[in-house]
Amino acid sequence: MNLVDSSAWLEYFSGGTAAKHFEPPLQDTASLLVPSIVIYEVFKVVMRESGEKKALQALAALQKGMVVEVTARIAIAAAKFGLQHKLPMADSIILATAHEYGAAIWTQDADFKHLPDVKYFPKKQKN
Fold first, then answer.
1. Which residues is 2 bridged to in the sheet?
2. CB atoms within 10 A of CB 119
3. N or C end: fewer C-beta atoms under 10 angstroms in the chain?
4. Are strands 66-68 and 118-120 parallel, antiparallel or unpaired?
5. Phi, psi at residue 32, to the nearest 5°?
């Protein structure tokens, strides 16, 4: 199973230099987990930057994977991971969801880079 976090989805949608790294898990929709917090983050950014039509197109792509709601079990695990790894709430929920389903996390978020089962591709800085 694969979980592509918000930073990676946004890189993919923007056609950024690291987008190619995220194509394999995004194209394998049968193995793709999409936490509801990722839908929130991606929809919000795309709507702010490109409008509602693009945000709805992004939503359609996100929903091709298995959408995972925040259950009490995931919320409790997220709280523990947040404290243990000093992660913000969204990252904690993403990590807890990945652990719940045995998924690898694909990301550009440096908060994840030293954690196990993470495929981290740093974001290139614009000159």
1. 32, 104
2. 17
3. C
4. unpaired
5. -100, 120
Residues 33-84 have pLDDT tens digits of 999 999 999 999 999 999 999 999 999 999 999 999 999 999 999 999 999 9
Using DSSP bridges, classify how beta strands 118-120 and 32-35 pair: parallel, antiparallel or unpaired.
unpaired
pLDDT digits (tens, 9 = 90+) for 72-113: 999 999 999 999 999 999 999 999 999 999 999 999 999 999
65 backbone dihedrals φ, ψ, rounded to 5°: -85, 180
Q: Which residue is it, tokens 């913000």?
A: 88
Residue with tokens 């994977």: 65
Domain residue extents for the chain: 6-15+27-114
Is residue 95 within 8 Å of 81, Cβ to Cβ?
A: yes
